[in-house]
Structures are given as C-alpha cells and as structure tokens.
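Re: the request from the purification team.
They wanted to know what the chain is likely to look like in 3D before they choose a buffer screen. I agreed to run a prediction and write the result into the notebook, where they can find it.
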Amino acid sequence: MKKAVRNLSIILIVLGVVFLFLPYHVEFTGYVMILLGVGISVCAWLLRSGFKWMFRILLVLMILCTVWLTGSVGIIGLYGNFDASLPDQEYAVILGAQIHGDQPSRTLRERLDVGVKFIAENPDTVVILSGGQGADEIMPESQVMYNYLESHGADMTRVYQENRSTNTRENLQFSGDLAESLGLDRTKVTIITSEFHLARAEYIAESLGMAAGGIGAKTEALFLRLNYYIRESFSFVKAFVQARV
C-alpha cells in the first residue's frame, strides 16, 4: 500500500511537470497535478510519522477540494452545452483569445467559426470583436479576429472592434461602452466564446448589469477542454470575488 501511494504521488508530480512544458497552454492542470501529488505524499508522511490529527485535517481538506473541483468542472461543462442567445439581442460580442503572430489560436479560431455562422444567421445584429494586445502579441486580438472573419466571407459592414481589453470583465465592459456609443442597449448582449468560458462570461456580464445570453464554441481537443474546465473553476472564484468588491 505504501509503495502504491508513493508511486501515485511520483506519477502525478512527473505528469504535472510534463504538462508545464507542453506547448498547449495546459500549465494550470500541471500545477494542480503537482499539488495533488505533493499533498498525497505529505499525507502519507504524516500518517507514518504518527501525526494522525494533522493527517486527518489535510485529508479532509484534500477531499473537500477534490469534491469542489469535480463539481465545478461538471457544472461548467454542462452549462457550456446549452446555447441561449437572446431573441431581442441588441448586439453580440465575440471574446478574444490568444493569437500566434497574425493568426488566431485554435481556441480563438473555434470561436470565430461560430461567429461566421452567427453573422450569416443574424443579418441585423451588430457584432463586436473584443480583445486587446497582450505583452507577447504583435497586434490586438480584435484585428486578427476581424481579418479571419473577413477572409471567411462574413459580412463586415456591421462588425466593430474593441481593442483595449485585457480580461473578460474588460471585454464586456468596453464592448458595452462601444455598443452604447452606437446607440444600442448595452444590456442586451449575446456572448460568443468557448463552452468552458461561457458560464463565467455570462456571470461577469450579469454582474455588470447585462441581460446576457451566450453561445459556446466547442473545444474539439478533449484534454484541452478538461484543462480549461479546471482553470475556469478557479477563475470563477476570482470573478465572484471581483464582482463583490
């Protein structure tokens, strides 16, 4: 039993380190795996050393965290499978994501493909592309998004760019400001983003006074989807705190 626990701990830590260096932005899952492996190892050491009360406390905390994380991932996953665009929407916002040079990342491309379809099916709806320029990016995400939609035949006459935002809250806040400057009701928005991001994006929108609906773009790679679900569980806690300060 001791050997099995030790091996499990080592496997989790080694896999976590591997995840840190994979070129797929799965570092967060790597950190979680390392933390879990270290936690199991510490639990085993406490039990062997006779610190049973400390072992019990740490074990209970680990179980509670695991239950919370599993439940959060499940809820976020279920939520992302239900599209709910508003019937009386004033505008839609496509949320940005990382770019590679002048090309969208896989995640952003999946969102934009949904955007191409949305623009075609909603000929009277204004669409705002929201995404600023990160420290490691050569241009604003919104410009890459615009170029992609244009190259895929989307009607660009009602597409606008918001290129100042650096996070989801700013995406929605600045896009709402732009919509208002266009004479639109900023509160009636449909958010187009990845399915793993949809629950948090709608929650943030509602905390900003918006009646938001959403459409989730499916993340095709399963291991990427799981990584993003885990990351979103922690990001949702941050969004909850920010909404109350």
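For the purification team: Helices lie at 2-21, 27-48, 52-79, 106-121, 141-151, 168-181, 195-207, 222-242.
Please add any questions underneath this entry.
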